[in-house]
């Protein structure tokens, strides 16, 4: 059992991790450590933003700030994927490539996931876990892969995810 996962909701499934199935789920921090085929998250960064614009006063030494509520939530996951030189469909690098190409929403099937189609489970930071619904879900904004080592069989990854939809209800 892993202690973290990202999954991609499918048009024919529900929003749960088990509903996504093994082909559409990446498990992290399993008991099998690298350089096996596993994937490991080393760092989690949370950027929870509020919209606070500045309303500068003309020709005065006054700076009014206005609190406009929650602006967004971004999660950055960083770590290493092993066996990256294996071109099998089950490889985590290939799954990430598929995820970014497939897009962030599903508007076909029932239910639809137009607010975000990615789920996240972080057992060590559960307050950021989200099971996608019709009201919210994660988007993948960016994936960076850096092949390391002599054999290029290890990949350092950085995944930037953003929570879409009703943030307050999601977390």
List its traits.
single chain; 171 residues; mainly beta; 4-stranded antiparallel sheet; 3-stranded antiparallel sheet; 9 strands; 40% strand; globular
Note the gap between the termini.
Answer: 23 Å
**What's the Cα radius of gyration?**
19 Å
Q: What is the succession of H and E elements?
A: EHEEEEEHEEEH
Structural class by secondary-structure content: mainly beta
Helix percentage range? 10-25%
Strand content: 35-45%
Could you name the ranges where pLDDT drops below 50 across 5 or more consecutive residues? Answer: none
Q: Helical region count?
A: 3
Largest sheet properties: 4 strands, antiparallel
Task: Give the count of structural domains.
Answer: 1
Number of strands: 9
Mean pLDDT: 88
Strand neighbour order, sheet with most strands: 3-6-9-8
> What overall form do the CA principal axes indicate?
globular
């Amino acid at each position: 059992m892993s202690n973290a996962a990202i999954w991609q909701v499918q048009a024919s499934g529900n929003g749960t991790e088990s509903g996504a199935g093994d082909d559409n789920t990446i498990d992290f921090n399993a008991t099998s450590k690298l350089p096996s085929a596993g994937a490991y998250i080393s760092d989690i960064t949370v950027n929870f933003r509020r919209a606070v614009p500045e309303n500068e006063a003309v020709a005065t030494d006054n700076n009014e700030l206005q609190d406009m509520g929650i602006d967004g939530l971004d999660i950055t996951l960083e770590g290493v994927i092993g066996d990256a030189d294996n071109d099998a469909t089950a490889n985590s690098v290939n799954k990430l490539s598929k995820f970014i190409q497939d897009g962030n929403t599903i508007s076909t099937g029932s239910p639809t996931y137009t607010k975000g189609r990615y789920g996240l489970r972080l057992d060590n930071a559960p307050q950021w876990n989200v099971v996608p619904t019709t009201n919210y879900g994660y988007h993948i904004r960016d994936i960076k892969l850096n092949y390391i080592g002599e054999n290029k069989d290890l990949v350092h990854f950085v995944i930037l995810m953003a929570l879409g939809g009703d943030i307050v209800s999601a977390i």
